[in-house]
User: Fold this.
Amino acid sequence: MRTAAILCLVSLSACTQAAAPVQQAAQPAVQGYRVVASYPHDPSAFTQGLFYHDGSLYESTGLVGFSTLRKVSIEDGRVVRSVDVPPGLFGEGSVGWGDQILSITWRDGIGFRWHRETFRQLGTFSYTGEGWGLTQNGRDIIMSDGTAELRFMDPETMTERRRITVTANGQPVAQLNELEWVKGEILANIWMTSRIARIDPATGRVTGWIDLSRLVAENNGGNTDSVLNGIAYDEAGDRLFVTGKNWPRLFEIDLVPAGAR
Assistant:
């Protein structure tokens, strides 16, 4: 008290600063979900990427020797079309762009362009570091690499345009995995967790979390590798789909506001 009084006498600004309360950053809200419908999902699919286009799901799967790109019927989980990723590569995320599908690999720095209708390989591209997830915003291909950073890339050349660092409460959020662009924000699975981050693409700030812990517990069969991974959005129908690695089901969910029962 005595020290504070002396500061007030010497400097009004010092007194004001000393008396001002510390402002805490707002915690991102945690929201739940409601299952609208569930559909069969191939339990052998080690899901790495998922996106929706024109009534079908497109899925990329991982593990060396088992990595594929697939077109999947939502209603029955049937694989309509499939192509193997070249031997020796660990497949990762995928995204649609025009009449193409772009897919990446984990530690090889090699990506592929596929014709969306025929799955014929059209070409390759390269990048530095690891490849994890892909999505797009109509201008950029957005890529995660297992860190807290997201790269925004030119769809034609796959050269990097810019990066953002994803943070929550001022701290980096690492292990960003599968991505989906939904209503102007990026949704991201966080590897080895049961949460999806809602990310502001301009600042990288996590604006909220989606807690899917119950869904994970009900579908991972007790296998810690069968993590939540796979987000797809049907913009025309406003439908959000989620699944996980080796899960037997795909789920259409509605988001429940934070604090709702």
About this structure: The chain has one domain: 27-256. The domain at 27-256 is CATH 2.130.10.10 (Methylamine Dehydrogenase; Chain H). The radius of gyration is 21 Å.
